[in-house]
Every structure is written in structure tokens, then in C-alpha cells.
Specification:
The structure holds 3 protein chains of 3 kinds. Chain A is 27% helix and 27% strand. By secondary structure, chain A is of the alpha/beta class. Chain A has an 8-stranded mixed β-sheet, sandwiched between helices. In chain A, strand 13 and strand 14 (340-342) form a beta hairpin. In chain B, helix 8 crosses helix 10 (236-274) and helix 10 (236-274) runs antiparallel to helix 12 (292-320). The chains are: A alpha/beta, B mainly alpha, C alpha+beta. Chains B and C meet through helix 1, helix 6, helix 7, helix 8 and helix 10 of B and helix 6, helix 7, helix 10, helix 12 and helix 13 of C. The structure holds adenosine-5'-triphosphate and magnesium ion.
């Protein structure tokens, strides 16, 4: 399950590697194929953006890595590897590879990883804190769980982390209930809670969507700042390409349960390869672009996930599709630049069968 | 908090006055009341005493008074503890009331505790074991519990206790203790008799409450903060009992008020079959005999019990939910 | 967008959008699909349909009139049926046995003994007691019966020697409709009150809520009983049928409150919704908004709440009649029949008197399945 790996086999600088992940929801009405072979690399200490239209599986991807896919969803195929650093007595650390898909989703191993190494904050700050407990209680709970300390120390740490998260009056806020705080403050509390055990990856699922623009900017600044200071990786899920450009080091573009393109932020914005990425970029206003070019919505709609599509999932909406190829097989992931991969038959002849 | 309780109590008083109006209407509604019957009887009896007795009755109950005065006579008497007379039993209502009401309260409270404890445990179990065979079995039991009329369940249980367990059934005491003064032995005897009424009266309420609990918990388990708790790395047990159940209890406390009428009305009906010395048998008999002062006094007290129960439920809710507490 | 894009034009009609069947269904179609996939709910529907047919064909299905008193068969037990003919071989025609009355030496009571030697054939489509079906079909043909002087008691006889089977079917006509009528009245009352309360809010809402609280602060069965006790006795001008209707009114008077509350919440939510705001802005009248925009949207919820209310109405009638405060003779209902089974001693000796209770349980169970299925179909995420 957990095997030790020398740096030769460890992909350089990654904390999480997702390979060909399939997650299906077995609902009463049929099988919803939420993820259809997601492959994603999360570099350590960097901000990875995940973008895509609603329903393409961004949240499910993050939840799968946390092993928190809700019923009736199941991981049906693929692997999720976590590279955790283990301190050895003599000072230097070694990297251990854990295959998260092998773990019991409620077992002790994943629980020692959740909250400590993988943390998550959610879109709705209004509902992601438990209304019945104080902010302090909820932050201390995580600290007491993962670190050896007394209640008093835990409370000090909670105050400390709240202060770092830019919370005004942290000493009094620890005794407050969530409903007494504004949305922005709640999201700061959530961030404090998630960071309380210095995780190596923080999943942020649209953390600012529910906030007003000013608060959003503050929270984004805060996250960037804390990321730089604490050195963790952030997986930033959003609809907002502007935020991606501002926040992220690399970007993964998802479409219908697959990552169709992953690249560092500059090449992705200035040299997008996948037709879907291009269409996506065309559909948003460009900062600084003075051209009178009209925004173009992407033609068609996202197919519902109950449908099964032969071939590349984007082909029905794609301007470049090759009949007989795109509607038969799924393109393989192809390297097109440094850290730049894309899944499209424009760049490869290689495909794989639907599965 | 104190102000909240005070305001709630104020509401309750207003409701009680309206309850009294309804109670009075129910006394007035029946075409031939026992009072008229009694007056007619006295008149027929004749004799020297009769006209005076009739006059006394007419004055006391305001037979010839306008309706509002009649109401006032009855209501002011009621508040002072003079509930009128039971013509059938030839006794003031107050002499028939207290002991029976006491047993009704005792049984209702015990039933409520029983059904709450069972509902929470069963509800949590079935919500966390959804789509398993025990959950389906519980669902079947819940459906049956909701479908069997309580008096029928009482009959079946009594037959079972008598024929299979060989117990002496019915009533709250064995023959030897029925009229004995209170003692430890009598108390133990009471406990031995209590399980059938509690089980019977509690059955449908428990079936319903455990279903509500299951549904609430399933709702809460879908909440974001439960995911947050899981994302912290808490064990499933902690997530459920500390984070989910606590919040699933709020709606349950809110329906507490709604489960009370079921318990009290169940108690009255079941008491007839189980032959218990509570309000039920006397109440329905009084209704059949049109002995309205007795009947309405019971009805009013049952309503007051309910109002007090609701007040408790609201206070409990305020105590449980910080959002209400700070309002 | 630095580079020029080499766009390959594709004819619009080639752009097909892949959709599954589920993705295309309307709201009502989805509900129907979910409902018909629900096995319990379908059991409820089919079971109820069968029961309604049976109780309304009651006079034809039962061999005896439900009022016919057989003083020779008081508390008589159900007759047995055998498919072994008099010649000792299997026969398609069912037989029962001749009944004789014997004095039990120990209890000094008359008991009914089946004479195993004398078999009596059960005949089909035979003439017997006259009856009227559905109020207008007069007939005297019964599905099955035995030759006179014997009478056939499938489910035994009551304290006056009346056929329990016939009485249960007749009682079903009352018990299985009283809930429906009560709920129908409750819906009308609850819809008006709830909609008004939720739509206008303010003082209307306050008053309505206080009234509802007031009604809810009485325990249901005792209040029903008190109101029923106020009804006049059965007479030539106030028949049992009048009483039946007034009992349904009483049941619904107490029962509308739940519906009104639910509907109020819905209407309040709709009032805030975009489509109502848009209609208001367009100058639509209150009536139009309520009847065109709100009630059709709330229809599915009304149906669900109504279906879920039926069981408690049926149980309420059963309890009232059991106490002697509900349905009175000459009408019968299951609760009224159970009145004979109030004592343990009676039940132990004549267990068939409990059969109406089984009928109540099954009916209520089926209605609960139906209600639950409807609710799950309309709102799969609610409790
Ligand atoms: N509990 C569930 N039951 C059934 N299907 C689900 C469930 N959760 C997610 N899905 C399916 O998985 C797909 C991906 O959902 P996901 O929430 O990951 O989308 P998303 O990209 O996060 O969208 P959004 O931007 O709207 O948050 C959805 O289309 C949905 O059909
Ligand atoms: Mg999402």
C-alpha cells in the first residue's frame, strides 16, 4: 500500500498524481459518469487551477482525492497517488508514495491524511461551518485530532491561525458561532481551519463564488499570501478565468469528466491547444484587449452526464472534429510543450477505446 | 432567554383564553344537555326542595343569562378551580379530575421519553445504514407502527400478555394494590403494568419520530459542514454523533410539540381498552352521556397540558440552537 | 487569441447534442417515472384498487346481507372450506360442513360443531338475499352461497349472528371513503387558508396562524370526539348518512391545519420567486398569480400532503367509531365493527372479531405506501 520510493521513481515536484480516474454515480435514474478518466498532476508548493463548465466534474475530482465521494458515487477505476514527505531521525526526509484509491475511505490511514495533509474549503461559507459549535471549537477539533497538544495550546494555535487568516479580533471570534460572522469572515475561518495543521495540499472549491467582489479580492490575496508563506500546494477550482490568471501557476481544463488540457498559466492563456480551451477563452472578455471582437459563446450545451458519448466528449461541439476518428475513439494524453499536455486528435493519432 | 420565555408564556395565556371559548362552545353545542335533563328530573321529582334546587342550578350555570354572562360565570369559576358538576357522578368535577389527570401526565411523560430515546437511536441507525436489510426491516416496522390503530395494538398485546406470558392484564395495578395506600411494593407493581400502555401509546409516535429523525439526519448528512467535518479527518462516528445528530435534533424538537397531541389522544383511547384509571375512559363516557362540564374540563386540561408541552419544546429548542438563543 | 484560427465550418444541423432520455423528460414525466419505479408505491396503488373494487362489489361478493341476524349463529365461528368431495376425492367444487349446535357440558354454553360427515356444496352465482349495488343495480345473485337452510359464514358471525364478511365489506365502503372525502374537504379548506395566509402575509397570516395554533393545541381524537358528541342523535330527519358527512367535516376541520401550513410555506417561497415577481411587475392580478402561477406549481405538493393525510383520517374515524362516537347503525365502518372487540375476553374467544382491524391496517399501509411514493417522486430529496 505505502511503498517507499527513491527520488528516481518519484515524479519530480509532485504531491498528488491522478491517473485515469473514473467516478460513477449509481443513481436510481441510471449511472451518471461524473469522471471518465481524469489524469492530473498537482505540483508541490504551486497553485493549480481547475476550470471547466458547471458539471464537468471539478468538485468530484477534489472530493475523490480526499476520498470523500458521496453516496451513490464510487471510484470505479484509476489511481490517486499521494507523495508524502516523511521525516527520518537522521534529519533528511524521504518521500513515501501512498495510493489513496487502495484505502478504506473511512479507515484510519486516510483519516490521518485528511485534515493533516489534504485539506479542503468549500464554496458556501454560509453552510460549511457547523451552526451548533463555536468557531474556536471547530478549529481546535482539527488541531487536537492531528497534533499532540492540550486544549489550551490548541486554543492558542486556533487564535494564532485565525490572526494569520486576517481575522479581526481572533480572541473573541473563537467564542463566536458561525451565524454571528459575515460571509467573508466565515470564509477566513474556514481557511484558518483548513490550514490549522499545515497541509501539503489545500483544495479550494470555488471559495469566493458566494462573496462580493471586494471580499473576494481580499480572500484571494490572503490565499496567495498564505500559500507563499506556508508553501503548500493549492488546487483552486473556479469558473473565473480572470481569477485563474491572477492566482495560478498551472491550469487544468476539464470537460465532461476529463482533463482535456493542462499547462502552466502563460502557455495556456497565450497558446491554448485544445479546441475547448480556445472556445472557453474566446467566451470571456479579455482584459486589455481593445479589439471590437464579439464574445463568442461556446456553441451547444454540455451534454448531461447520464448520456454516453462515443469518442472525444467534446466532438459534438468541436469545430475541428475529424469524422471517423473523434467520434469513435478518445484521444490519448499528449505532451505538446514543457509541462503542457493535451488530449486531442489534432496532436496525436493515438487513441484509447471508451471505457 | 428569560424574556423569550416570558413572551412565549404570554402567547400561551392568550391561546388558553381562546381554548376556553372553544371549550364553552362545546358545552353549549349539544342539543339536550345534562343540565336540562337534571332540571327536568328535579321538576318531575317535585317536593319542597325542588324549586329551590332548580333556581340554584339556574343561577349557578346562568341558564337564563345572556351568552356572554354565561361564559363569564363558567370561565371565572373555572379559573378559581370550580369546574362545575358532573351530573352523572353527582360530584364536583374537581373531585374526579386530579388523580386521573396525574396518571395521564405520568403515562404521557414516560411514553414521550421512551419514544424519544428509541426514535433517536433507531433513526440514527437507519440513516447511517441506508439500503441495508436492517434499514428495510426498520422501515417495515415503522410503516406497521403507523398503520395499526393503537387500541388494536393494545388488544393484541393484552391477548399476548395474558395468553402467552400468563400475566394479569389491564389497569395500572394488580387487584391487591388497587386501593392500597402508596408503598414501594405498589410502585413496583405500577411499573410492571406500565410497559404495555407505554409501548402501545408510544408505537405510532415512535414510528413517526424515528422516520423524521432518519430524514433529518439524511438531510444534515448532505450539509456542507458534515463534509467539512469529514475533511478534517474525524472518524465517521464523531462526524455523525457530534456534528450531524446535534443538528438533526432541532427539527425533532420542533415536532415535539406535534407529537404530544398524538400521545395524549392515544392515551385517552388506549386507556379504555387497557382499563386504566386515567382521563380517557371518564372523558369519552362523559361525552356519550352529555355530561359536558366533566368532559370539557378534561378537554381543557388536556389542551393546557399540550400548551405546556409546547412551551417546553420551544425552550428546549432555544437552548439547543444558538441561532435562536441570541435573537 | 494571438493566432488565427483555422476554423473548419460545419453545417449547423450536424451539431447534434447528445442527450440521454432522462435528461429530456419534463417534471411530471420524471415524477411518473420515479413513482412507477417505486415498488412499494405500486403495491399500494394496485392493492387499493383491488380493495375498492372488492368493497363496492360487497353485496354481490358476500353470501349474506350485512344486516341479516341469525339468532342461531350468534358468535359463530368462520365455516371451513374443503376441496375433498363427499366421495373422498379431490373436487373442483368447494364444500363446507353441516353445522349443528351442541351444549358444551363444561361451560354450559352452546357451541357450533361442524359435522365432518355431512358435506354441503358451495354454489356459485346463486340467488339469495336481495341487494342494491352502487345505489341503482338491484339484484339477488351472489357470487357464492350454500343451499338453505344452511348459511355460509366465511369470516364468522358477530354478537347478533350477522355475517362478518358482509359487514367488513360494507364497513369498507365507509372506512375507505371517509378518509378521501375528509381529505378532499381538508384540501379545499387548507388551500384557501394556506394560500391566503402565504400570499397576503401580514395580519391575515397572523390571524390564520393563531387559528391553526389554537386548533393544534387540542389533542385530536378527544376534540373530534367532543365535536361528534355534539351531533344530534340519529332520527328520521338526521340519518346515519347525514352523520357520515358531518363526521367527515369534523375530521377535516381538524385536519386542514397541516395542509394549510405546508401550502403557506410553499406560497411564501413562490411569492419571492422570479416568475411571480415578473408576473407582478407585468401587472397580473392576484387571482391570476395565485391560480395560474402558484397553485399549478404547488399542485404536486398538495397531492403529496393530501395523500399523506389520508391514513390519519382513516385512523381517526376508526378510533371515533370504536368509541361509539363515530359512525352509527345502520351504517357500519371498520371502527364500528371493532367496537364489539373491546374486551380481551371477547377477543380471546372470538378472534375473528378482530378481522376488521386487519382490514384497517392493510388499507392504511397501502395509503402510506402511496403517499410516501408520491412524496419521493415529487421531491426525492426531502425527508
Ligand atoms: N451526489 C451526486 N449524485 C449524482 N450525481 C452526482 C452527484 N454529485 C455529482 N454528480 C454528478 O457529477 C457531475 C460532476 O459534478 P461536479 O459537482 O463535480 O461538477 P462541478 O464541475 O463541480 O460543477 P460546478 O461548477 O457546478 O460546481 C455532475 O454532472 C453530476 O451529475
Ligand atoms: Mg462544484
Amino acid at each position: 500500500m505505502a511503498k517507499q520510493a527513491g527520488s528516481s521513481t518519484t515524479p519530480e515536484g509532485l504531491v498528488v498524481r491522478v491517473r485515469d480516474l473514473h467516478v460513477y454515480f449509481f443513481t436510481d435514474l441510471g449511472v451518471s459518469r461524473a469522471l471518465n478518466g481524469v489524469s492530473l498532476d498537482i505540483p508541490a508548493g504551486k497553485v493549480t487551477g481547475v476550470v471547466g463548465e458547471s458539471g464537468c466534474g471539478k468538485s468530484v475530482t477534489a472530493l475523490s482525492i480526499m476520498r470523500l465521494v458521496p453516496h451513490p458515487g464510487r471510484i470505479t477505476k484509476g489511481e490517486i497517488l499521494l507523495y508524502r514527505e516523511r521525516e527520518k531521525q537522521n534529519g533528511h526526509s524521504i518521500v513515501e508514495e501512498v495510493n489513496l484509491t487502495d484505502l478504506d475511505p473511512q479507515g484510519p490511514v486516510i483519516r490521518s491524511i485528511r485534515g493533516a495533509e489534504l485539506a479542503m474549503i468549500f464554496q458556501e461559507p454560509m453552510t460549511s461551518l457547523n451552526p451548533s459549535y463555536t468557531i474556536g471549537d471547530q478549529i481546535m477539533e482539527a488541531i487536537l485530532l492531528h497534533q499532540q497538544c492540550t486544549r489550551k495550546e490548541a486554543e492558542e494555535r486556533a487564535v494564532d491561525i485565525l490572526a494569520r487568516a486576517g481575522m479581526p479580533n481572533p480572541q473573541t471570534v473563537v467564542r463566536r458561532y458561525p451565524h454571528e460572522l459575515s460571509g467573508g469572515m466565515r470564509q477566513r475561518a474556514m481557511i484558518a481551519m483548513a490550514l490549522s495543521c499545515t497541509p501539503s495540499v489545500l483544495f479550494a472549491d470555488e471559495p469566493t463564488t458566494a462573496l462580493d467582489v471586494t471580499t473576494e479580492a481580499q480572500i484571494l490575496d490572503l490565499m496567495r499570501e498564505l500559500q507563499a508563506a506556508m508553501g503548500m500546494a493549492i488546487v483552486f477550482i473556479t469558473h473565473n478565468l480572470g481569477v485563474v490568471a491572477q492566482m495560478c501557476d498551472t491550469v487544468a481544463v476539464m470537460y465532461l469528466g476529463r482533463v482535456v488540457e493542462q499547462a502552466p498559466v502563460e502557455p495556456l492563456f497565450y497558446d491554448p491547444q485544445h479546441p475547448y480551451t480556445r472556445a472557453l477563452l474566446r467566451s470571456i472578455p479579455h482584459v486589455g484587449s481593445r479589439t471590437k471582437a464579439r464574445l463568442q459563446p461556446i456553441r451547444g450545451v454540455v451534454p448531461d452526464p447520464y448520456a454516453t458519448i462515443e469518442g472525444c466528449p467534446f466532438h459534438p461541439r468541436c469545430d475541428y472534429r475529424k469524422p471517423g476518428l473523434c467520434d469513435v475513439r478518445v484521444p490519448a494524453t499528449t505532451q505538446v510543450g514543457e509541462n503542457h499536455t493535451v488530449r486531442c486528435f489534432l496532436y496525436t493519432e493515438q487513441g484509447e477505446d471508451n471505457g | 432567554m428569560a424574556r423569550y420565555i416570558l413572551r412565549r408564556s404570554g402567547y400561551m395565556l392568550v391561546t388558553m383564553i381562546f381554548v376556553a371559548v372553544i371549550g364553552f362552545l362545546i358545552i353549549e353545542l349539544p342539543p339536550g344537555s345534562y343540565l336540562e335533563f337534571e332540571i327536568a328530573r328535579l321538576r318531575q321529582l317535585g317536593g319542597d326542595m325542588a324549586p329551590e334546587q332548580i333556581r340554584a342550578l339556574e343561577v349557578r350555570y346562568g341558564v337564563h343569562d345572556p351568552i356572554y354572562l354565561k361564559f363569564w360565570k363558567w370561565f371565572s369559576g373555572f379559573v378559581r378551580g370550580d369546574f362545575g358538576r358532573s351530573f352523572e357522578h353527582r360530584l364536583p368535577v374537581s373531585e374526579l379530575l386530579w388523580q386521573r389527570l396525574g396518571f395521564t401526565v405520568l403515562i404521557s411523560v414516560l411514553t414521550m421519553i421512551f419514544s424519544w430515546v428509541v426514535s433517536i437511536i433507531v433513526g440514527v441507525y437507519s440513516a447511517t445504514h441506508r439500503y441495508t436489510i436492517p434499514d428495510y426491516a426498520i422501515t417495515v416496522l415503522q410503516f406497521i407502527g403507523l398503520s395499526v390503530p393503537n387500541f388494536l395494538l393494545a388488544l393484541v398485546l393484552m391477548v399476548f400478555a395474558q395468553q402467552v406470558l400468563g400475566m394479569e392484564v389491564g389497569g395500572l395495578f394488580s387487584g391487591a394494590y388497587r386501593n392500597a395506600p402508596w408503598s414501594l411494593a405498589k410502585f413496583i407493581d405500577l411499573l410492571k403494568h406500565l410497559w404495555i400502555p407505554i409501548l402501545v401509546i408510544g408505537a405510532s409516535g415512535t414510528a413517526w419520530l424515528s422516520r423524521v429523525m432518519r430524514g433529518n439526519l439524511l438531510d444534515v448528512l448532505n450539509m456542507q459542514y458534515v463534509q467539512t467535518a469529514r475533511a478534517k479527518g474525524l472518524s465517521e462516528r464523531t462526524v455523525i454523533w457530534k456534528h450531524a445528530v446535534r443538528n438533526a435534533l432541532h427539527p425533532l424538537v420542533m415536532v415535539l410539540g406535534m407529537s404530544l397531541p398524538g400521545i395524549i389522544s392515544g392515551e385517552t383511547v388506549v386507556a379504555i381498552v387497557l382499563n386504566m384509571p386515567t382521563t380517557g375512559p371518564l372523558y369519552f363516557r362523559a361525552l356519550l352521556q352529555q355530561d359536558m362540564y366533566l368532559a370539557v374540563t378534561f378537554l381543557m386540561f388536556l389542551a393546557v397540558l399540550l400548551l405546556i408541552g409546547n412551551l417546553f419544546a420551544d425552550i428546549l429548542l432555544a437552548w439547543l440552537d444558538p441561532r435562536i438563543r441570541f435573537e | 487569441m494571438a493566432e488565427a484560427e483555422t476554423s473548419i465550418p460545419i453545417p449547423e444541423e450536424l451539431v447534434r447534442e447528445p442527450v440521454s432520455e432522462v435528461g429530456q423528460m419534463s417534471q411530471w414525466q420524471l415524477m411518473r417515472l420515479r413513482f412507477s419505479r417505486n415498488r412499494l408505491a405500486m403495491t399500494g396503488v394496485i392493492g387499493l384498487a383491488v380493495m375498492y373494487v372488492i368493497v363496492f362489489l360487497g353485496p354481490f361478493l358476500a353470501p349474506n346481507d350485512y344486516m341479516y341476524q341469525n339468532t342461531d349463529y350468534i358468535f359463530g365461528q368462520p365455516n371451513s372450506i374443503t376441496f375433498i368431495g363427499p366421495d373422498g376425492r379431490f373436487s373442483l367444487r368447494p364444500y363446507t360442513y353441516e353445522i349443528s349446535t351442541v351444549l358444551d357440558e363444561q361451560s354450559f354454553k352452546f357451541v357450533f360443531v361442524e359435522n365432518r360427515e355431512k358435506k354441503v356444496p358451495i354454489r356459485f352465482f346463486v340467488r339469495g338475499d336481495p341487494y342494491t349495488l352502487f345505489g341503482f343495480i338491484k339484484s339477488d345473485v351472489h357470487l357464492f352461497d350454500v343451499d338453505r337452510p344452511q348459511r355460509f359464514y366465511l369470516l364468522g358471525a358477530d354478537e347478533l349472528g350477522r355475517d362478518m364478511f358482509a359487514r367488513i365489506l360494507m364497513g369498507g365502503q365507509v372506512s375507505m371513503t371517509i378518509g378521501l372525502v375528509g381529505v378532499a374537504l381538508g384540501i379545499i379548506l387548507g388551500s384557501i387558508m394556506g394560500t391566503a395566509s402565504g400570499y397576503w402575509g401580514g395580519l391575515t397570516d397572523d390571524i390564520m396562524q393563531r387559528i391553526i395554533e389554537l386548533i393544534m393545541s387540542f389533542p385530536t381524537v378527544p376534540l373530534w370526539a367532543a365535536l361528534a358528541a355534539a351531533l344530534p342523535p340519529i332520527s328520521a330527519t338526521f340519518t346515519a348518512l347525514h352523520r357520515y358527512f358531518l363526521i367527515t367535516v369534523i375530521l377535516s376541520l381538524v385536519g386542514w391545519t397541516g395542509l394549510a401550513r405546508q401550502l403557506r410555506a410553499k406560497v411564501m417561497a413562490y411569492r419571492q420567486s422570479d416568475f411571480v415577481q415578473a408576473a407582478l411587475a407585468a401587472g397580473a392580478s392576484d387571482a391570476r398569480i395565485i391560480f395560474v402561477h402558484m397553485l399549478p406549481n404547488a399542485a404536486s405538493h398538495i397531492i403529496v400532503v393530501a395523500a399523506l393525510a389520508i391514513p390519519s383520517m382513516i385512523l381517526g374515524e376508526t378510533a371515533l367509531s370504536f368509541l361509539g362516537l363515530g359512525i352509527l347503525p345502520p351504517l357500519v365502518s371498520w371502527g364500528a365493527l371493532l367496537k364489539s372487540a373491546q374486551q380481551v375476553a371477547v377477543v380471546v374467544q372470538h378472534p375473528w372479531l378482530m378481522i376488521p382491524g386487519v382490514a384497517v391496517v392493510i388499507t392504511v399501509l397501502f395509503f402510506s405506501f402511496l403517499g410516501d411514493g408520491l412524496r419521493d417522486a415529487v421531491d426525492p430529496y426531502s425527508i
